[in-house]
Write a structure and sequence with these properties.
The longest helix is centred in the first third of the chain and has 17 residues. The strands form 7 sheets. This protein has a 6-stranded antiparallel β-sheet, with no helix packed on it. Strands 6-9-7-8-12 form a 5-stranded mixed β-barrel. The protein has 11 helices and 30 strands. Strand 10 and strand 11 form a beta hairpin. The protein is α/β, with parallel strands linked by helices.
């Protein structure tokens, strides 16, 4: 097949319509990223990680969407449990004018796409262009990305559904493929003959040699009415449930909370399998932008080599007589002697060691951790909360020691414990403490005691982060020992049912 060459500048692409269409970029931020364990965990998945630079994958995706230059909001569809993380990361990246649509549970990409299309139709009209992207992919060439996306606008306005393909550089078995046929639009695009599931090694080699197969980037553009018409024909119940979940959504300062019952009724299926594979008029636009789905630890190969032996190292790493390793050290020294072609990922509470050609199997280890109900499958040693974070320093029979950081102006919930007392020692900043009927300040090197059964609250009234050491002691230190009376983040449930309300700085459910 005659392969197109990526234009060097936007001026060489098909002309942009003189009237900028109504367009809504949508980031899907519901993935769990289990193949990037132990950095990626259920409560802090890979889209929130800064793997190869200063910004997280989510922040980079949002900045790319903003660079397209279209008016209107950026829409992010993410999990209810991650709402504070999403909002904080967008705010820290300077992203304003956003709409956060919150899923009560994950129902895969077809449901998210249906919600996005219905939202575009309802908010901006049936011909609104929806650009659907994953929030956890990496793209190196921003200018080429903007030019490529804008080049597809005329095709989308004409009613075509556009996907973006990446020229394979090796026989990948971790990606889906697009088999493309005749060129259209002066060879800027191709008809998609079929979508191909992730192949085995032999098939991937054949695809690479064929030349007519492209990696499926998972980025789609469509008019809302065009996609909804296809969805109505192919997945009508799913479309109806997604519409109901959106129209019955609860609105809060955090975002739009999709109706749980309606959304749970959406069939759990990917957009490719539910819709795209069944259509015969999909168009593929080639995308040469340095794309990577960051689906395994081989993503560290994007980093420049750290030495002449092709080791790529992050953190405190000592290498001796070793080559072609990918090493990430987060909390301690990692020393390697005589090791080749391995991935080593070190965190405060877990270490992964795997041959480079086996990193796709990390998901199996995570599944075993979940079966064993190990907390390492879901949470890091450092657990982030809307008010800051905490991390466990030590724990044992009848005690649990944490380091807590509270951001300026933030405060924890007003709460009480039945089975434990707490000692707080301020090591940095100023704490405003509520303990029973008393309210007072604690500054550096001061401490206070919270007796068992006493209503209490911790707040940072200052301009600098508050850091303290919390020592819990008691006969029972479980997550469910709490009664919450008030919470500024809307997490307060029925405060009289302590067994059903988790600790404000203990579990993911407390988000």
């Amino acid at each position: 097949m005659d392969a197109p060459t990526r234009p060097a500048t936007a001026a060489m692409l098909p002309p942009i319509p003189s009237t900028i269409p109504s367009m809504i970029p949508v980031l899907m931020s519901g993935g769990s990223g289990t193949r990037l364990w132990p950095l990626s965990r259920e409560n802090y998945p890979k889209q929130f990680l800064a793997l190869t630079g200063a910004h997280s994958l989510l922040q980079n995706a949002a900045l790319r969407a903003r660079a397209l230059g279209f008016p209107g909001p950026l829409v992010v569809i993410g999990g209810e449990a991650h709402r504070f993380l999403i909002a904080e990361q967008l705010r820290d990246a300077g992203i304003r004018n956003t709409v956060l649509i919150l899923e009560p549970e994950g129902r895969d990409t077809a449901a998210a796409a249906a919600v996005a299309a219905h939202y575009g139709d309802a908010s901006s009209g049936p011909e609104t262009i929806v650009l659907l992207m994953a929030a956890d992919h990496a793209i190196d060439d921003l200018d080429a990305f903007v030019a490529t996306i804008r080049s597809a606008i005329p095709l989308v306005q004409s009613g075509r559904i556009v996907t973006f393909g990446v020229r394979p550089s090796y026989a990948a078995t971790a990606f889906g493929y697009l088999h493309c046929g005749a060129p259209i639009a002066d060879k800027f695009a191709f008809e998609v003959e079929r979508f191909v599931e992730k192949p085995d090694e032999q098939a991937a080699e054949a695809f690479l040699n064929d030349g007519g197969y492209w990696w499926n980037s998972g980025i789609f553009m469509f008019r809302a009415d065009r996609f909804l018409a296809a969805l109505d024909r192919l997945e009508r119940p799913l479309s109806q449930c997604a519409y109901a979940a959106l129209t019955m959504a609860r609105h809060s300062s955090d975002g739009m909370h999709l109706n749980a019952e309606a959304f749970a009724s959406c069939r759990k299926v990917s957009i490719d399998y539910a819709v795209m594979e069944k259509l015969n008029d999909i168009v593929m636009v080639p995308m040469d932008v340095g794309w990577d789905d960051v689906g395994s630890w081989t993503c560290l190969s994007r980093l420049p080599p750290s030495d002449e032996h092709e080791n790529r190292l992050q953190g405190d790493v000592l290498i001796e007589d070793s080559a072609r390793n990918l090493v990430h050290a987060e909390s301690r020294l990692v020393a390697m002697v005589g090791v080749e072609d391995h991935v080593v990922i070190e965190t405060a509470d877990a270490v992964l060691v795997a041959p480079r050609d086996r990193v796709q199997n990390v998901k199996r280890a995570v599944e075993r951790l979940k079966i064993a109900r190990r907390k390492e499958a879901t949470s890091h040693a450092r657990v982030y909360r809307p008010w800051g974070y905490y991390e466990t320093i030590a724990e044992g029979d009848r005690f649990h020691v944490k380091r807590i950081m509270v951001k300026p102006g933030q405060k924890l919930s007003l709460q009480m414990h039945h089975h434990r007392a707490e000692h707080w020692v301020v090591v940095k900043g100023t704490a405003r403490v509520t303990c029973g009927e008393r309210e007072f300040l604690c500054t550096e090197d001061q401490s206070t005691y919270i007796p068992l059964g006493t209503t209490h609250r911790l707040e940072n009234p200052g301009m600098l982060p508050l850091e303290l050491i919390e020592v819990q002691s008691g006969a029972y230190l479980g997550e469910d020992d709490i009664v919450r009376f008030d919470d500024v983040y809307g997490r307060a449930a029925d405060a009289q049912s302590s067994a059903q309300v988790p600790d404000a700085h203990e579990t993911a459910d407390a988000l």
